[in-house]
Write a structure and sequence with these properties.
There is one protein chain. Helix content is about 75%, strand content about 5%. The strands form 2 sheets. It has a two-stranded antiparallel sheet. Strand 2 and strand 3 form a beta hairpin. The longest helix has about 50 residues. It is mainly alpha-helical and about 325 residues long.
Length: about 325
């Protein structure tokens, strides 16, 4: 079964690079998001216990449905099992979609002006974008690529290497819950507590591995500063309320010799945030494309490493027989 799993992991990863997430196709994570919205309406209360119930009612059905689908497919035929597992792997990765959505902001800025770019950016960030300058738009776009390189690519890739799409959807379900209810405000402070904490735990190791992979890639590619990437990661990796979010951002900022983060507006209120990285050079439009190079470089390196580890396990298992 491991050989089928590694084959599905490779095919699914390549599919993600080629196809991404076409919006016209049904998507399991959108279904999970709809389920979270439905449950919130039914069970919401300003209570951590109700929030824990939400986590249970989202994670267990998502995992069971995915498990049954994969088991059923493999029971019919091994090749069908690989296809189903590969398609689900593709669904749970976001390499191309992250590149496409962030590139759309730059295209809007180049072709239609700053107002269109602000609107395009609002589709992929949680902050207010109405008053952002061109520099603010570019910084927010690069930050989104950097942060989501961990949440949307490296973390699900690692979890799926370990436990296939079942562990993949558990991670994605928790990550989606955090993005929907894991806020520090009057409504979600208690109800979203367990969703936020679960996401923090699941992202603890992948966020740090993502930063390390980013540093390695920036050392390999001459157009980036690997030494500065390591320096900024060591210095600024905790410059965020979340102990995970600044890990990859600090490595990206150092590799690209730019400064990210700082104060931002959310729902009309300015939120004070420390800077990440040094303002060695002013951010430019081309830096968004450079962030895509880091995104693809880290994802390829992670895929190679995950595949290599699985092959080593297979070889060790065969040797022991």
């Amino acid at each position: 079964m491991l050989i089928y799993h590694v084959l599905a992991l490779i095919i699914g990863y390549v599919l993600d690079l080629i196809v991404g997430d076409p919006h016209f196709m049904p998507h399991p994570i959108r279904a999970v998001g709809s389920w979270i919205s439905y449950l919130e309406k039914k069970i919401y209360a300003d209570s951590r216990l109700r929030g824990l119930l939400l986590v249970v009612l989202v994670v267990i059905p998502s995992a069971l449905i995915t498990l049954l689908l994969i088991v059923f497919a493999y029971k019919i035929n091994a090749y069908l099992g690989v296809i189903v597992e590969a398609v689900l792997t593709c669904y749970f990765l976001a390499t191309k979609s992250l590149m496409v959505e962030s590139k759309a902001v730059v295209d809007a800025l180049n072709n239609d002006g700053i107002v269109a770019a602000r609107k395009s950016l609002s589709m992929i960030v949680g902050r207010d974008t109405e008053d952002l300058s061109e520099e603010g738009i570019l910084k927010a776009t690069v930050e989104t690529v950097a942060e989501n390189s961990s949440d949307g690519v490296i973390a699900p890739l690692i979890y799926m290497a370990i436990g296939g799409p079942v562990l993949g959807i558990i991670y994605k379900a928790c990550n989606t819950m955090d993005s929907m209810v894991g806020y520090h405000n009057d409504r979600y402070e208690n109800f979203g507590f367990f969703a936020a904490k679960t996401d923090d735990v699941l992202n603890f190791i992948p966020s740090r591995l993502c930063a390390i992979l980013t540093i390695i890639v920036s050392c390999i590619l001459s157009s980036f500063d690997g030494k500065n990437a390591y320096k900024m990661w060591r210095r600024d990796r905790f410059n965020h309320k979340s102990k995970n979010s600044a890990q990859s951002e600090s490595a990206y900022a150092g590799a690209m010799s730019i400064r990210l983060a700082g104060d931002a507006s959310y729902f009309g209120k300015i939120v004070k945030k420390p800077y990440i990285g040094d303002d060695i050079k002013k951010i430019e439009i081309k830096d968004v494309k450079r962030s895509h190079i880091l995104l693809y470089g880290t994802s390829i390196l992670c895929e190679v490493l995950c595949t290599a580890v699985i092959f080593i396990i297979i070889k060790l298992h065969m040797t022991s027989l």
